[in-house]
Structure formats: structure tokens, C-alpha cells
Design a protein that fits this description.
Low-confidence stretches: none
Number of strands: 14
Distance between the termini: 9 Å
Helix content: 40-55%
CATH topology of the largest domain: Rossmann fold
Length: about 280
């Protein structure tokens, strides 16, 4: 019997215009009404995850920034696993040496030195998991990152590495030159205990090696007295692997990569066909 359901956001819970469909919302509410714990597990910051949850009228705990932060449904921080500041500074240096654009996710929100790229990076993530989508619609929806203050402008990332109250959760690095990303990856691994994954063809997600969706989900269900065997997880991308490998029921989206589908127990419909709702209703 399933007692906890974890769902990724981009390419999974969200459709191609980055909204939670009515079908997905109703399935989640039905699961919650039956006492099932539903948790979102995303590479997004808490602020960006809450933005779309609030838009849909849903309240859920959130595993954010790939597991670097976990928050209760009320928004209280339950756990945080930041990157060491000295390691973070060296990561930034490596990316800047290659002129790779990146954003820094922190406990105080997400920062960018180029707000135009802050929009285009989200467009890339969405289009890479929804290749048939109308790009203009995605660009408008992604623009909410800047319009609604979800990404903060900053002149230099060095300011983040020197402030005591700032915790560095994640680097989201972006380049159209995949060879640049491939060449920097082994160098980043040498810097320390880092986890490097991806949620799109042209990006890298860099976190503390213990900040992974699967590790965070395992700790979350244990605290609730739930077994991983009683947990279902849904995802579409490589940053979902750590949780898909751990749970009792792993579900790949219809739009997931072949490698993700091959790991899973079941394959549901695509994110534009309310695949999350179908997977939830199947176990209910």
C-alpha cells in the first residue's frame, strides 16, 4: 500500500506551460484526502516551487534544490545541506574560466548576474522536456521568474560567498556548447564532495553530494514512519534517478528519456496528458 507519493515538477507535475493541470491537482487532493503524504521533489528553489503550487491552490511539503533543502507544507525548513563556501567559490571560478553562465541557489533565493539568461535557462529546461511546445508560451511563462522577483539580480557572486547568513545550495550551469559542460564536469568532481546531475540537455546541476532527491526523500519518509517500499516516486530526468532507484514504486513519465524509463516499474502518460494524475489514480 502506498503511503507517500513524491513527484518531480518540470516535465512531470508541470505541463509544457509550467502549470499544474486541474486533473493533476484533483488527483493530489484525492490522495491527500485519503491520508497519503504527497511531496514535491524538484531542482527548483522553494520560492519557485511554491509559486506554481500557490497558483494551483495546492499545499505540499517540498524537497527543493535537488534535496539541498526540505520544507514542511507550512514552509518551515526541516533540513538543509549546503555546499561548503570555499568549494562553492572554486566551482564559480571553474565555470567563469570557461565563460559558462550559471545561477546560484541559496537559502535566501536564487541569484543571477544576467536576468535575460535567467529566463532563457528555464525556457531551455522546459523545451528540452517538451519539444513540441509553443516556444512563445514558454518564454512568457518563464518570464515570471523575473517579473515576480523569483530570481534576484546581483553584480558579483563573490558577495554570496562572503556573507555568513547565506548558504549556497546549488549552481545551475547552462551552455549551448555541451562539450564545455562535459569538459568541466571532471574538474568539478575534483573540487570536493559534489553531486553533478542534469535536468536538461544544456545544463548541469551542482550540489553537495548528500543533497540528492533520493537521500532527502528517504529521510523525509523515515521521519513520518513510512517505509520507502510504501513510497511512489514520479520523474522524467536524470536528477530524479536517486529517488526512482530507492522507492517501492518508480514511475517514469511518458516523456522521460529511455534510460529513465528502463529504471522504473511503470510508465505513465506524458506531462501534457496528466501522467501524474493517471499514476496517482492507479495506486489509489
Amino acid at each position: 500500500m502506498i503511503k507517500c507519493i513524491a513527484t518531480d515538477m518540470d516535465g512531470t507535475l508541470l505541463n509544457s506551460v509550467q502549470q499544474i493541470s486541474l486533473e493533476n491537482k484533483e488527483a493530489i487532493l484525492k490522495a491527500q484526502a485519503q491520508g497519503i503524504e504527497v511531496i514535491v521533489a524538484t531542482g527548483r528553489s522553494y520560492q519557485e516551487a511554491r509559486y506554481v503550487l500557490d497558483e494551483a491552490g495546492l499545499t505540499c511539503p517540498v524537497i527543493g534544490v535537488n534535496g539541498a533543502e526540505v520544507r514542511s507544507k507550512e514552509g518551515e525548513v526541516l533540513s538543509a545541506i549546503p555546499i561548503d563556501k570555499q568549494v562553492a567559490k572554486r566551482v564559480a571560478d571553474k565555470l567563469e574560466e570557461r565563460d559558462i553562465y550559471f545561477e546560484v541557489y541559496t537559502n535566501k533565493g536564487t541569484y543571477s548576474i544576467d536576468l535575460e539568461k535567467a529566463v532563457s535557462i528555464l525556457v531551455d529546461i522546459v523545451v528540452s522536456v517538451n519539444p513540441d511546445v509553443n516556444q512563445e508560451d514558454v518564454v512568457y511563462a518563464a518570464g515570471a521568474r523575473v517579473r515576480d522577483g523569483l530570481v534576484h539580480p546581483i553584480e558579483s557572486y563573490d558577495l554570496l560567498f562572503t556573507k555568513e547568513e547565506i548558504q549556497i545550495y546549488k549552481f545551475l550551469a547552462f551552455s549551448f556548447d555541451s562539450e564545455w559542460l562535459e569538459s568541466v564536469t571532471p574538474e568539478l568532481h575534483e573540487l570536493g564532495e559534489l553531486s553533478i546531475s542534469s535536468s536538461g540537455h544544456e545544463n548541469l546541476e551542482i550540489t553537495n553530494k548528500n543533497a540528492q532527491k533520493g537521500i532527502a526523500l528517504e529521510a523525509f519518509v523515515k521521519a513520518k514512519g513510512i517505509e520507502l517500499a510504501e513510497t511512489m516516486a514520479m520523474g522524467d530526468s536524470f536528477n530524479d534517478v536517486s529517488m526512482l532507484e530507492r522507492v517501492g514504486r518508480a514511475v517514469a513519465m511518458g516523456n522521460a528519456a529511455y534510460e529513465i524509463k528502463s529504471l522504473c516499474d511503470a510508465i505513465t502518460a506524458t506531462n501534457d496528458e496528466h501522467g501524474v494524475a493517471k499514476a496517482i489514480l492507479e495506486v489509489l
